Every structure is written in C-alpha cells, then in structure tokens.
Amino acid sequence: MADHRDPAPQHPLLVALACLDTDLDHAAGTPTWSLSPGEAEVALVELAKCRARLAALELTTVAAADRAGVGDATGATSTGAHWAKLTHQTRAKSVTLVRHAAALEARHGTVLAAMSTGGVLPEQAEVIARAVDALPVDRVGVAVVDAARAHLLELAALFDAVELKRLGDRILDVVAPEIADDVERDRLEREEAAAAAAASFTMTRDGQGKARGRFTIPAAEADMLAAALDALTAPRHHHAAHGTDPVPVDQHGDRVPRPLRRGQAFCEYVRTRHRSAAGATATTTTQAGGVDATVTVTLDLAQLTGHGPGADAPATLSTGTRITAAKARLWACGAAIVPVVLGGASQPLDVGRTRRYFTKTQRLTLARLQGGCTADGCDWPPSMCHAHHRTPWHAGGKTDLAEGYLLCPRHHARAHDPAYETTYHRHRITFARTRPMRT
C-alpha cells in the first residue's frame, strides 16, 4: 500500500537555498553578451550585494553549525575540519572562517547584519572588525568602541576596504579626539620598537649567477624604498635611461610584469648608490613626475621642535604611513626625508603666471593633499603622476595649488580628450564620455 504521508518538512533555509540553486541555474543559462553597458553596470552592483548577503548567510550558518557540534558524530577535530572535508575547501580557510564567524556573531553583530543586507562587503566587514578589535577597550570604554563601529559602518557606503582600513586606523580622531594622539603614539612606539628589533636581511648565492634574499624592515623605510623603485620604473625614466619605449616590453611584445621591473630597478638603485659611495660622478636621485623620488613627512612646528601643545602627536608620511614625532624629528634633522612643516616659514606655493610648470614644492604639497592620481577610482601613486592644470596654462590658467591636480598618464590624456567631459571636485576628478566609442 502506498504511503501518502507528507515527507518531513525541510528547514526554511534549505528551501530557500534550493530555490536559489534553481534561480542560479536559470541565470547561468542567460547570455551576458546581450547586456547593455547600463545593464551590465547594474548587474555588477547587484552581484556584489548578493555576494555580501551570501557571505553573511554562510557565516551565520557556520556559527550555528559550530554551536551544534557539526562533525562530532564522525569524530572530526573541529567544525572547520569537517566542513573542509565536505566541501573540499582547504582546512586552513575553513577553520579561519569558523573563527571569523564566531567573532562577528559575538562582538560585531551590527557588522554581520549590515552584510546580510548587502550594504557592507565581506572585505569591508573584516577591516571594520579588525579596526574595532584593535581599540584598547579598557582605555577608551565600550561606548567609544560601539561609536567607532557605527561610524565605520557609515563610511563603508563611501569607501573601499583599503581606504576604510586607513580611516579605521584613525577612527579615534573622530569618536574620541581627546585621547586619539596618546593612544596612537603608544601604539606606534610599540610597533616601531618591534619593527626595529625585527629588521633583518639575508642573501644567498645560487651558484648560477644569481642571488636570492629576504628582508624585513620598518614600514616607513619600506615606503622610502618603494618610492625610489617606483621612480626608476617610471616610463619617462625608463625611456631616458635605456632609449627604448616608455613602457618596457619583453621579446614577445608583452609588458614586463611589475615584479620584474622592480627587480631591474633595484639593481639600478644598488649600482647608482655604489658608484656614489665610491666617489664616482653619478646621479644619486631619480626623478619621477618632476621631483626626486621623495617621501615627505607632514608635521607642525610644535612636532618639529618638540615643544608646545601636540609636540608628541604622530606625524604622517606622504604614503599615509604614521610615525612617531620622535622619529620624524630624527629624520628631519638628518635630511633623510623632506619635512613639510605647517605653520612655519616655507617656499611660496602660488606662483601664478610666472611659471609654466609646477615647482618641486608644489608637487610635494599636491602629493600630500591628494595622495596620488585624482581620477575617481585610480590608485596610482604621486611619483607616477603628472601635475595637471585645471584651466590650461595656454588658456590663461595659473600654476597655483588651487589649479593643480595629480593625474596618471592615462587619465591626464583623458583630461585633454574632447570625447570626455571632465568634472573637477575638491582633489578629485570624474570623467563622463560625451561621444560614442569607435567601433
């Protein structure tokens, strides 16, 4: 006799996942080539939201599975290990996700909730959680920690994970400015001491004409090295030094990968420094974008002299790295780095119509103010950018800071392309195509 009883009801989550699986089958069979540019743009945004919502659902389910002891029946060592076996993920990734899920549920429920609506991406959620967890709760209090988390969630609607991390490192400036400098100074002193103690350099020869090495150096010194190497890999320098195309290519006509270009630049850097140390006539500085490969430090007069209110507040490098005031004073004294002193005597910055090109001082100031290419969405560093006049110089524009915008070569060309409409904002430029693309 047939059994007409209804099967055991499934959990609503399993029903929803089955429906989602069906919908994805339908979406996978839909041709994407027929999307218009506008439709493709909407689809990309919606897919990012779906990814965030699915990630949040996965994390909450993982946390529930861990509490339920999934894997205990088979003797698995952990939920993460059991999950890895079921899905063929790496065990390290599975275990890390289980821990991340438990931490978010226990300490950052609002972050997980924002992910579940698609308002915060997984990488943004991780940055927010790390920034909040780094705050000294015993010193700032729970209320300040909650305020920091809430503010970073608001910023997630405006900034990507990289910029959000920078803002998270300085979140106390917003939610607890009265203690922000003291807390950051203590943190930087610990980090600088640990970095100095851990600095190391090892090099071994392979017997075939090459040497391999590893090094560990403080972040500030790494910024200085990166600035020098980026200047040496700049297209104009490569063309001037080697007489070849501005963009280096290999024998097949493909662009040389950045690690290889940096390796070649490091060799050039070592050779240049060696010739200088030996007393030979050589240029020991490389220019990129009209200035020497320079890392600047921004500090006010009190920080430079070590006297007055705020004398011990941390200083900022042009790369965004924060260092203690003591380290900034040491470097400024030894001329190892160019100080940009606020409130003290400085070179004239607005030279009006007396000059066609921006001065080195202006270039350094633009780098400090704008941080790199000002085109929306571009991350090229200042050393690789041109200084662009908002109003062309030949049309009466002035070589003043208010008229200056850093642009990478690609976006500089776009700013002069009549096919695009250029809109200028404060230290930011956006482009909109006004003519159809050629087919």
Automatic annotation (TrEMBL):
<protein>
    <recommendedName>
        <fullName>DUF222 domain-containing protein</fullName>
    </recommendedName>
</protein>
<dbReference type="InterPro" id="IPR003870">
    <property type="entry name" value="DUF222"/>
</dbReference>
<feature type="region of interest" description="Disordered">
    <location>
        <begin position="238"/>
        <end position="257"/>
    </location>
</feature>
<dbReference type="Pfam" id="PF02720">
    <property type="entry name" value="DUF222"/>
</dbReference>
<dbReference type="InterPro" id="IPR003615">
    <property type="entry name" value="HNH_nuc"/>
</dbReference>
<feature type="domain" description="DUF222">
    <location>
        <begin position="43"/>
        <end position="366"/>
    </location>
</feature>
